Amino acid sequence: MTTHDDLRLADGSAANHHAGEATTPPLDTPDAGRVRDTLLLHTPAQVARVLSVRESWLRRMAGRREIPCTFLGKHLRFSEADLRAIVRRGARPARGDASRADRPVTRPPGSRRR
């Protein structure tokens, strides 16, 4: 069983927590699979670490309601379904090199290649 003293981030540093608050291991640790099933919601810091994005980006996009999230009062949280939706939202189809090679290069009239 993981105790508060055992909580470590991926870089080996101790996880910070506020006194009296329940803490969980980061989502990118070996214990995450076992713990993730019991977690209902994740903090912006946890999600930013997992998705490799800035926490400020998550907060800004959530504030604009451009990504799925949950507000518990003023506290921002993300569910597993929210994370999957954020990743799906950012997915782009691959463009093969063949599709670019087949297209002729077009330039506006009067423009020259530098």
From TrEMBL:
InterPro entries: HTH_17. It comes from the Bacteria. Pfam families: HTH_17 (PF12728). Residues 43-89 form the Helix-turn-helix domain. This is Excisionase family DNA binding protein. Residues 94-105 have a biased composition (Basic and acidic residues). Residues 1-33, 89-114 are annotated as: Disordered.
